[in-house]
């Protein structure tokens, strides 16, 4: 079984945090300075737009219908903190000739409000028909 490689080039797995810190020091040119790495867990993983977008991408790569995927993902995320969630998929949906945009929303997602606590993520999904763009917005009403 091969080692996992982080997108920035870090080796993950049995090498541990100290090796990652050393790789970061070399990458950033901070050999003589101290570097502190703090790991934090995600309390609500399905409240994070990056995790939701990756989930939608993996479902679309497995050729699950996009409307079902959006509905199940919104259901999985639930309405956290009285906020809302919006998912948008753009591209050649179901392999059609014409690209289009479909979206689904539950709850409030006030994109025009500057002070709104909205987390956003874009994630591309490579399918057999081409690339689909997946955007997720999660609004946390505090």
TrEMBL record:
Database matches in InterPro entries: Ribosomal_S3_C_sf (IPR036419), Ribosomal_uS3 (IPR057258), Ribosomal_uS3_bac-typ (IPR005704), Ribosomal_uS3_C (IPR001351)
Coiled-coil region list: none
Family label: Belongs to the universal ribosomal protein uS3 family.
UniProt keyword terms in alphabetical order: Ribonucleoprotein, Ribosomal protein
Domain Small ribosomal subunit protein uS3 C-terminal: 56-138
Any GO BP annotation: translation
GO cellular component: cytosolic small ribosomal subunit
Descriptive protein name: Small ribosomal subunit protein uS3c
Cleavable signal peptide: none
Domain of life per record: Eukaryota
GO molecular function terms listed in the Swiss-Prot or TrEMBL record: structural constituent of ribosome
């Amino acid at each position: 079984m091969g080692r996992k490689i982080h997108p920035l080039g870090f080796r993950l797995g049995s090498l541990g945090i100290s090796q990652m810190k050393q790789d970061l020091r070399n990458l950033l040119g901070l050999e003589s300075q101290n570097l502190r790495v703090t790991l934090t867990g995600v309390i609500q993983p399905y409240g994070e737009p990056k995790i939701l977008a990756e989930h939608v991408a993996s479902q679309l790569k497995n050729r699950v219908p996009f409307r079902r995927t959006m509905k199940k993902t919104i259901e999985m995320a639930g309405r956290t903190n009285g906020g809302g969630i919006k998912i948008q998929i753009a591209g050649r949906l179901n392999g059609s000739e014409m690209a289009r945009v479909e979206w689904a929303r539950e709850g409030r997602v006030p994109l025009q409000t500057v002070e709104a606590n909205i987390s956003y993520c874009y994630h591309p999904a490579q399918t057999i028909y081409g690339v689909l763009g997946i955007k997720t917005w999660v609004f946390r009403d505090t």
